[in-house]
Amino acid sequence: MEQNARLYQDLEKVLVTKEEISLKVKELGQKITADYAGKEPVLICILKGAVVFFSDLMREIDLPVTADFMAISSYGSATKTSGVVRVLKDLDHDILGKDVILVEDIVDTGITLSYLRSMLLHRGAASIRIAALLDKAARRTVKDLQVDYVCFDIPDAFVVGYGLDFDQRYRNLPDIGVLAPRIYEK
Ligand code: PRP
Question: Can you spell out the DSSP letters for the chain?
Answer without folding.
Answer: --HHHHHHTTEEEEEE-HHHHHHHHHHHHHHHHHHTTT--PEEEEEETTTHHHHHHHHTT--S--EEEEEEE--S-HHHHHH----EEE--SS--TT-EEEEEEEEESSSHHHHHHHHHHHHTT-SEEEEEEEEE-GGG---TT----EEEEE--SS-EEBTTB-BTTBSTT-SSEEEEPHHHHT-
